[in-house]
Design a protein that fits this description.
By secondary structure, the protein is α/β, with parallel strands linked by helices. The protein contains 6 helices and 8 strands. Strands 3-2-1-4-6-5 form a 6-stranded mixed sheet. Strands 7-8 form a two-stranded antiparallel sheet.
């Protein structure tokens, strides 16, 4: 990949590392930024909490890499804030992995009626982060994963950006086998216990580019027919604060119809 792949995506900064494999260069760069963040003696309690959460996420990812070869791992990626944080930490953890290839295996389950802005961000960020992204357009996530595993039978575990306050997230752990008729694979949840504000503190402190819809007041992204700007962020007719100004976890999905 050319040096242009290390240019900023939209609203953050990007840097480059010369002289080595492009994906490994990116992993090394992200690892350096995260290690520098973790070394900081920060006064703000929110950021200290993010440091602690980042260490936990790194430990979970390292455990996954001990349990599975990289060829058996995939990432569920839809361009949203939570899986974006997961992706960045995952890449940092891969900086010295011996089996690193040119791209990372991943799946994008496209929602019905996707936002063009989301599709654009997924496309640009998957290039920037070197994702081998398989798209599935399916109303049922269960069916999408089943179809994915039919074409990718080597995948045994999938990183998922689910958090505790997401639907069906309340009882999840860091490692959970699928059940209830789902296709069999291990779901790995490195950011399961992150709070909404911690996700945004990480993104903004490390200047990670994100989907532009978040600057328009959207706090949880689905499709165009079931997702609106969050009413808790409304500041006038048709005007909303950006997503990172929301504070309460239980208000995150107020803009979602389901």
């Amino acid at each position: 990949m050319t040096e242009a792949a290390h240019e900023p995506l939209a609203n953050g900064v990007a840097d480059s590392v010369n002289g080595c494999h492009p994906l490994r260069a990116l992993c090394i760069s992200l690892r350096s930024r995260i290690e520098a963040f973790l070394r900081q003696d920060l006064a703000a309690e929110k950021l200290r909490n993010v440091q602690a959460q980042t260490r936990v996420a790194l430990d979970v990812i390292r455990e996954a890499l001990d349990r599975y070869p990289l060829s058996a791992l995939s990432l569920s990626y839809n361009g949203g804030k939570d899986c974006l944080v997961l992706l960045v930490i995952y890449l940092a953890a891969l900086a010295e992995h011996a089996d690193l290839l040119s791209t990372l295996e991943s799946i994008y389950i496209v929602p019905p009626h996707p936002f063009p802005e989301v599709n654009t961000f997924v496309a640009s960020s998957s290039i920037y982060y070197h994702l081998s992204l398989t798209h599935f357009s399916c109303a049922s996530m269960k069916n999408a994963f089943a179809d994915y595993l039919l074409v990718k039978p080597e995948v045994k575990a999938i990183f998922v950006g689910t958090r505790r306050t997401d639907p069906h997230g309340g009882k999840l752990t860091h490692f959970d086998l699928t059940d209830g008729g789902w296709p069999p694979f291990m779901r790995i949840h490195p950011v399961i216990d992150w709070h909404y504000t911690e996700i945004w503190e990480f993104i903004r402190h490390l200047e990670i580019p994100y989907c532009e819809l978040y600057d328009m007041g959207y706090t949880s992204l689905g499709g165009t027919t079931d997702t609106n700007p969050n009413p808790a962020l409304r500041i006038g007719e048709g005007r909303y604060k950006p997503a990172y100004e929301l504070v309460e976890d239980d208000e995150e999905r107020l803009g979602r119809d389901r």
